[in-house]
Write a structure and sequence with these properties.
Distance between the termini: 22 Å
Oligomer: single chain
Strand content: under 5%
Shape: rod-shaped
Structural class: mainly alpha
Helix content: 55-70%
Number of helices: 4
Number of strands: 0
Mean pLDDT: 78
């Protein structure tokens, strides 16, 4: 599991780096058409390495929430499937003859 998380993080960093390079190239090509931004000659966007570094950080902050949202959705799906397994288990019959009914998907966490 940890290997897949590392793969996703590496993919995010690679995406951020390539997006930053694209951003720097795009700015170098289009900077004459961007007069409405009032960018001066000594601005950070005119320095390639610094521009790529700053753009990588901006892209990283933009897509940083992708992994936690996907993990939360996965966790909730697993909870739901476990709740279905508990409610369909025939061996969990009580001494009165009642089968378990799951009212909350957090039940298995509460049980330990």
């Amino acid at each position: 599991m940890i290997r897949y998380i590392l793969y996703v993080c590496a993919l995010q960093f690679a995406f951020c780096f390539f997006a930053a390079i694209y951003d720097a190239i795009w700015y170098a090509v289009k900077k004459n058409e961007l007069s409405y931004l009032f960018i001066e000659d000594d601005d950070i966007l005119n320095k390639w390495a610094l521009s790529i570094l700053v753009s990588s950080g901006i892209w990283l902050m933009s897509i940083l929430n992708f992994v936690p949202i996907a993990l939360l959705v996965s966790l909730e799906m697993i909870r739901f499937l476990q709740a279905m397994l508990i409610s369909n288990e025939k061996l969990m019959m009580s001494y009165n003859g009642f089968y378990p009914t799951v009212q909350s998907s957090n039940l298995n966490e509460d049980l330990g």
